[in-house]
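Table S2 (text version). Query chain:
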Amino acid sequence: MKIVLPVAGNGIRLRPYTENMPKCLLPVAGKTIIDWIVEGALFLKPSETIFITGYKASVVDDFLKRKPEWGAVRTVLQSNPQGLGEAISLALPYVNDDEPLLIILGDTLFEADLSILDKATENILYTFKVADPKRFGVAVTDKNGHIERLVEKPQEFVSDEAIVGIYYIKDVKALKDALNYLMQNDIRTKGEFQLTDALERMIQGGCKFRTAPVEKWLDCGLVETLLETNAHVLERNEKVAPKFEGSEIIMPCHFGKNVVVKNSKVGPNVSVGDGCVIENSEVCNAILWDSVKVLDKKLEKVVVHE
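Corresponding structure-token output:
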């Protein structure tokens, strides 16, 4: 199996935090977004993980050099972004037709059972049941659980299974053919080559797809949702409160290396980066990047990067 992670987006909705940092490297609960995604899939033992880079590509390249434990990695530059379909097409020359492919969008976190992929015999799209399907692309399934078609933002109810950005492809040759067809014939949706259009072409061409559930779909696209995701991940992973001089720590919180906290109240739901200093302050529901100093302040529901 190979894993492809498109991480070329510029994260405009998260400015100013993405002015010098690609969205996938923003910190959440002590790690970057991409750390959580990749480490959650390493048990699948991919032969290679391919990152489709674009915005701040050199920053991603430098980051990956510090990740030898991730095994074989490759970056492919999407220099003129024309949609997710085009992004995936750039990785396909490095994927054999008989090697399954797992595509995971590199800007959201999720809780889902990926272990089913070890024995999967069909293509799988992970979905999440949503209350308002009109906002999403959805999968319409038959009585046997196979996907009949994909519908983008249906105004009339056809399904509540939203496609969340985790795609397992067994029929790699068919995906290559579908994307090639779209691009050679300049078939675009909203001006871009869409992966969903290629998947729909595969389905109508006879490729078997079924859905698999996502238990939690954790958005990182806005400051408020990034903070909500940070709180959820902390709740799952951080249980033991460290002790700091004259301070009260309300879990869950994460503290990086070489952190100084004095005469302060920290928590709940605070992620503190390496080398931070917090003195005479109160901090809750916040993400502090590395080397941030908080002196004589009260911070709540914020991301602090300098």
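Notes on Table S2: DSSP finds six helices and 21 strands in the chain. The first helix runs from residue 33 to 39.
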